Amino acid sequence: MVKLKVCCFNVVTSDDVLFHGNDWYSDNMVNQALLKEIIQKEDVKYQIKASAVLVQDHFTAFVNDIFEKFYEPKQAIVGFIGAMFGRSYTTYNRDYFESNLDTVLQHYINDPDHTNIRGIYNTNNTVQHCGNNVLDMNYTEFSNELMASISLSSNEVPITYHINIHKKHQLYVNALFIQRNI
Fold it and tell me: Where are the domains of the chain?
């Protein structure tokens, strides 16, 4: 059996023990499945192969140069990696549905800067207002149409509320692989 090259393979299989259906799998997993005859070579449909590969110690000279030139080299590398990847936060996004107005207001009072509240209305019981073409109306007709529309919607109370809390948290710890080896 010829060992497959390093890349990702798309495997079509009904096996749900080693594989979880048709998906992309690593070369080691596909090699093991071929050796144990769980799949056949015909089950491998596509592959993604890198067009270029870095040698194992590609960044060694860079890291050694940083350690020679900086007073706090780890902080310099953390700054470099942070600038390179550009993400210094993680997001927190939660959605709740609540019909009790007191609970809704409590969510808003706890964190007004990050809380959005929208009412959800029962559309089955609303009176359907037949719209007219506003371009064909004069000022009086348009004002009457607008007032009728406002009066229909202002009497309606939401049946529940959608509460969305969205925050961005700063990241202070960067656990990238290059940092763990320094």
Answer: 8-48, 99-165
User: Coil, strand, or helix at residue 145?
Assistant: helix
Class of residue 96 by CB neighbours under 10 A (exposed 0-12, middle 13-18, buried 19+): middle
3-state secondary structure at position 136: helix
Round to whole Å and give the CA distance between 14 and 9.
16
User: What is the CA 48 to chain-centroid distance, rounded?
Assistant: 24
Average pLDDT estimate for 2-11? 73
**What distances in angstroms separate CA 122 from CA 80, 105, 125, 126, one per listed residue?**
53, 21, 6, 7
Q: pTM for the full model? A: 0.37
Per-residue pLDDT tens over the stretch 25-70? 888 888 888 888 888 888 888 888 878 878 888 888 888 998 898 8
Taking each continuous run of H as one helix and of E as one strand, the counts in the chain are 6, 6
Spatial contact of 161 and 117, defined as CB atoms under 8 Å apart: yes
Question: What distance in Å separates the CA atoms of residue 86 and residue 47, rounded to the nearest whole number?
Answer: 30
- Region for residue 86 given its phi and psi (left: phi exceeds 0; alpha: psi -120 to 50; beta: otherwise): left
